[in-house]
Amino acid sequence: MIVVYHLNNGRSQRILWLLEELGVPYEVKRFERMPDYTAPPSLLKVHPLGKSPIIEDIGESVVVLAESSAIITYLIQKYGGKQTLSAEGALDDLYYTHYAESTLMPLVVIWQRLSRFANRAPWYLQPIFRYVLGAYREMYVDPELPRNIDMIEKHLSENSWFARGSDGPTAADYAMIIGLEGLRAGRAIVLEKHQAIVRYIDKVHARSAYQSGLGKGGAFAYAKQVEAV
Ligand SMILES: N[C@@H](CCC(=O)N[C@@H](CS)C(=O)NCC(=O)O)C(=O)O
Fold first, then answer.
1. Residue 65 in contact with ligand 1 by CB distance below 6 A
2. Rounded to the nearest whole angstrom, what is the distance from the C-alpha of residue 62 to the centroid of ligand 1?
């Protein structure tokens, strides 16, 4: 039995999508973010970092695992059966599975948070905060984000899934989806400029497994819930 410790509007949604695709039974323990958007302290009882996702795989022994890309790799290795990817496809899969949390997500999270930080300063300091955070964004985020988005757009304009040649989602797709959803929600990814990415996100959202995962996870601001197809 697998238990997913799930936080609303977060990375664990991709684990629910994966488990639905694998057809593995699982239970969702839902946690709600605090007003400052952090996880509730009760998650610290499950794992020392108290972040989501965390899974428990309960068999003869109990495996507790955090870190989404590690979870994705673990679940696919244990429950996914054999994948037949070309050598190039396997390399794409490896690259994007790691790239998602090592490079893309830190950038997405910094980009999302910069505007929120300024609003938390006392009103009389807000202009200074905005200036400093704006300068930081100009130096470190603005040059990086388009470069990353362009790389992904090119890859998806040439391939249906992140692992080239694959006829369905692989680890890389489960790892990548949340970053792309976040960028689209914040309008860093727009149809006029990033048709391949937008089409890709819509294709993922149209999958019945994705929709079933949405149904189990509760509120998720980055995707519309529709009748499973
Ligand atoms: N790299 C980690 C990041 C985990 C993470 O930061 N999760 C967010 C949810 S998307 C979280 O728990 N945020 C609440 C907090 O930081 O208190 C992973 O991929 O699992």
1. no
2. 22
Give, in order, the Cα–Cα distances in Å from 145 to each of 3, 70, 94, 179, 183.
34, 25, 21, 12, 10
The 10s digit of each residue's pLDDT in 89-120 is 999 999 999 999 999 999 999 998 886 777 78
Upstream peptide bond of 127 is cis (omega within 30 degrees of 0): no
**What are the structure tokens assigned to 211, written together?**
């929709």
> Are 162 and 72 spatial neighbours (Cβ–Cβ below 8 Å)?
no
Ligand 1 centroid, distance to 54 Cα (angstroms): 10
Q: What is the rounded distance in angstroms from the CA atom of residue 17 to the CA atom of residue 226?
A: 14
> 7 in ligand 1 pocket by Cβ < 6 Å?
yes
Return the residue matching tokens 């009748």: 227
Pocket flag, ligand 1, residue 39 (CB < 6 Å): yes
pTM, 2 dp? 0.94
Tell me, using a 6 A CB cutoff, whether residue 67 lines ligand 1. Answer: yes
